Amino acid sequence: xxxxKPNIEPNPGAREIILEGIGGSPGICIGKxxxxxxxxxxxxxxxxxxxxxxxxxxxxxxxxxxxxxxxxQAIIENMPEDFQDQASILETHVVLLKDKMLYNRAIDxxxxxxxxxxxxxxxxxxxxxxxxxxxxxxxxxxxxxDVLHVSDRIMRNLVGAGNVDIRHIxxxxxxxxxxxxxxxxxxxxxxxxxxxxxxxxxxxxHTSIIARxxxxxxxxxxxxGTKLIQNDDIIIVDGTQGRVILSPTEETLVxxxxxxxxxxxxRAVVTRDSALPAxxxxxxxxxxxxxxxxxxxxxxxxxxxxxxIGLYRTEFDYVRRRQHPTEDELFEKxxxxxxxxxxxxxxxxxxxxxxxxxxxxESQPDQANPALSLRAIRYCLKRPDIFRTQxxxxxxxxxxxxxxxxxxxxxxxxxIREAKMSLDNAAESLDKDGIPYNRDIDxxxxxxxxxxxxxxxxxxxxxxxxxxxxxxxxQYSLAIDRTDxxxxxxxxxxxxxxxxxxxxxxxxxxxxxIPIFMCGEMAAEPVHLPILxxxxxxxxxxxxxxxxxxxxxxxxxxxxxxxxxxxxxLKQSTVDGVSRLLEDTYAGIFSESLFWNDQP
Length: 600
Description:
The chain is an alpha/beta fold and about 600 residues long. It is built from 25 helices and 17 strands.
């Protein structure tokens, strides 16, 4: 990145406005806004058709879908080398074009309601969007964006609107759009596009994943961003803080230009040292791993110094399809990941979804509260056919490397025993079929519900390792829906109850002599490391981009000091008390490593 200050002058007549959003990709860029015009797609009128017109209307819809497929295939074939690892995202969109939830329902709506294709598509997409966004899991919830991107491309073909052509932008700008699909983002040329801002989207969206892959700043979910920002407006995009500054003052510009330089310099340092082991100053080594959803993200884990895969979320291979994946399809994906990682461990979590809400091609009764219903291990044990297919695929992939299996949402001993029995049965069936497999793998459980914390001593007798999923543990322990804006501010891993629960599980793991891991978002925040080191974590797993900074922070700390510090932390009764103690004790170390968290 060019560290020279951009030739930008503030507009003396404009008022500085700060827009809050979601940090999709870290970093800072400063430049002129370029609005991507996507008007006209959302304005859809309904009109009724005679029965003799329905065949022609359905054919018009099918033609629009075919054109959308051809457009996506052309983009995939012409993708720059930087994007080849993300081609599967666009291939997913090709599959979605013919998904029965979208394609068949739209045709059925045209026929049943005798309406135009645009209106039928809008109605179907509205229902699908509500279904996805009603899910508890953030990653699955944001798969609604994939449906919207695909339907938008079909809609543009139906109404005759032009598609976004980012490739032909011939000046250095920051893109501002209501949304950017992965197909749009894949056309970004790094020498022209400094970053982007969207009204829609979130951190788990595929557009956000592409931004992080390209290492360009992005802020998503900026409400009314496209209404407030005009072409050629000077804006600052702070992808780390999730903030966009419109018409910055000269003072703000100077502060962010300095911060931009520091960010680039710091990232260069931590990335350069990312391959070094995470050894504390008193000689204790922790393994720092990466969390992935897509096989393509393995490259990012290795590039950022990850020492294995601590959490491979396997849900994506189910939610993007019109039917359940076959054993061979799952095996090939798992095998690819395992072979790339070599001797490094790959922790494959079994299916962690809710049957009705996440798998649209199944038909089950609606569940009033998906977070407390048939999900994860409960779903798998109720659907042994689906579970067995995945377990067989995992055991087959284990022949090619260092595989660990992780069962989610275990609430008691009966579930882990039944899950292990299912694994043994899968192995026996492979043996009977004469297919190579490896049953000699570690079997662990996720600690993410309070009952698992209480029964940790008994569950340890059934497990080779514990992996603490702090996201759900916090949600279930504090009775907080982290997606509910009314209570989201109370979702905090530094709550004294959460710290005590994590310590309780770690103490049991130590007594029972099994490893204790953490794969929730708590592990990705360097400010939490003094506590986690004091508790005695053996391994931390996080999004790949957080790995270099976490490893660097570990190398700045001592375990002995952290244990003494933890004793003081456990005396605190509030989140504020824990936060203040952290800041007072480790302010010097934090200021070195986390400079961008300081307000400019």
